[in-house]
Amino acid sequence: MALQRIVIENCAIATVDAGDTEYASGHIVVADNRIESVGAGKAPENLENVVRRIDGTGHLATPGLVNTHHHFYQWITRGLATDHNLFNWLVALYPTWARIDEQMAYSAAQGSLAMMARGGVTTAMDHHYVFPKGSGDLSGAIIRAARETGVRFTLARGSMDRSEKDGGLPPDFAVETLDGALAATEATVDEHHDASFDAMTQVAVAPCSPFSVSTELMKQGAELARRKGVRLHTHGSETVEEEQFCKELFGMGPTDYFESTGWLGEDVWMAHCVHMNDSDIAAFARTKTGVAHCPSSNARLAAGIARVPDMLAAGVPVGLGVDGTASNESGELHTELRNALLINRLGAHREAALNARQALRLGTFGGAQVLGRASQIGSLEAGKLADLVLWNLDTLAHASIADPVTALVFGAAAPVSLSLVDGKPVVEDSRLLNVDEDAIARSTRAEAQRLARIAAQA
Fold first, then answer.
1. How far, in Å, CA of 183 to CA of 191, rounded?
2. N- to C-terminal Cα distance for the chain?
3. CA angle (113 as vertex; 107, 119 as ends), nearest 5
4. 136 Cβ neighbours under 8 A, 6+ residues apart
5. Residue 20: which region, alpha, beta or left (left: phi > 0; alpha: psi -120 to 50)?
6. pTM
7. Where are the alpha helices (DSSP H) in 124-239?
8. How far apart are alpha carbons 449 and 129 in whole angstroms?
9. Of 15, 66, 240, 260, which sits 20 to 30 A from 24 (CA to CA)?
């Protein structure tokens, strides 16, 4: 069958390639699910099988945004424990989270995915680690929601086996056994992971955190991931309390503990990494361990300011994460471009911390690196997958900002006129094409109310 082409012209383009190539007015040609060409001026003439031609005047084209850390199920517990630090917040919410079921997980995933996709996310991920007994096929429900939304997706199949009786934070009824967690994780990889270039669904091995997981689960989880050829994900160095916990329980800080369990490497990425000293950053750089930077969640839980400029200078791969919507109620990634830039300027580097183009790179190519997909997505280059966003900057909110990348990052959240994933439209004129936003809103509201009733009766 002949290639079907979509042509986008007359837009500003930020390719986020190795040279940060940009065009004040250029074109993008998509052929089926690949980018065929990107360049200045009009598209080549006499292209065959052009099924759609888009005038991008007043718009900026960028790679689609890549989310590197999230907890979809938290969509139905937003707005709770709003004045807590991480440990107190977890203790307050674990008893409710431990009562989710398959329908709740599916509805919450729909809400989380819809909010991200309508804001320019083309590759999402979910770190799901709560598997109550008898709750159904939670992983399958989450993957189904991603498939229906139309985004590329990584499920980080999480697990917890260190409960309150073992010195952890989750209640005893909220965790799995070591063997049960490993078996279920392997089954999820076998059933759902796609290693192909244009994969829409991938799976990572993701024990939750040092304070909710046994050392044996960390070690055997790493061995499982490498035997299966998939990536590894967990939380790391999020708070000073976590650092103290690791030192008291393991006799070492988080980074040394991760290294002792096989959890540093180019196939690993960790969420947060707020409290990292020079030695920690050097270890991550040496091993090419990635970081999911979650600025809004870090601020919401008063965790601190991650040393992102120092990580980047050292060569640590860094992407952006929404984090769960119980600690970032907006659920959006495009606002994290701005928040990452602004919050990091409150740190030691002040105005030199990050600029607009560095922030955009974190949300696109940096995220692709962290998920192990930099050869496929994250920049607008010929041969890469056609995951891209056309941002409308012809608005009151952006009208007087001359530079389009500055307008996108420093300005108000820009509307998405078009989002393509795998060459297929997912968003047009700020509306999702594959799912009903209003129906999702009703469903998530109902499931949040049902969960609250169940938790109150427990």
1. 12
2. 58
3. 140
4. 101, 102, 103, 105
5. left
6. 0.97
7. 138-149, 178-192, 215-228
8. 22
9. 66
Decide if 180 contacts 223 (C-beta within 8 A).
Answer: no
pLDDT tens digits for range 145-159? 999 999 999 999 999
Contact assessment for residue 192 and residue 143, using Cβ atoms and an 8 Å cutoff: yes
> Could you tell me the two tokens for 395?
């608005």
Enter the tokens of residue 392. Answer: 């409308």
Q: How far is CA 14 from CA 23, 343, 380, in A?
A: 7, 23, 8
pLDDT of 331 strictly over 90: yes
Local structure of residue 268 (DSSP, 8 states): E
Q: Evaluate whether 358 touches 381 at the Cβ level (below 8 Å).
A: no
357-412 pLDDT tens trace: 999 999 999 999 999 999 999 999 999 999 999 999 999 999 999 999 999 999 99
For 118-257, list the strands marked E by DSSP: 121-128, 152-159, 201-207, 232-236
Q: For residue 416, list its beta bridge partners.
A: 391
**Which is it for the CA torsion 257, 261, 264, 267, positive or negative?**
negative
Spatial contact of 303 and 335, defined as CB atoms under 8 Å apart: no
User: Which residues have CB under 8 Å from 433's CB, separation 6+?
Assistant: 150, 425, 426, 427
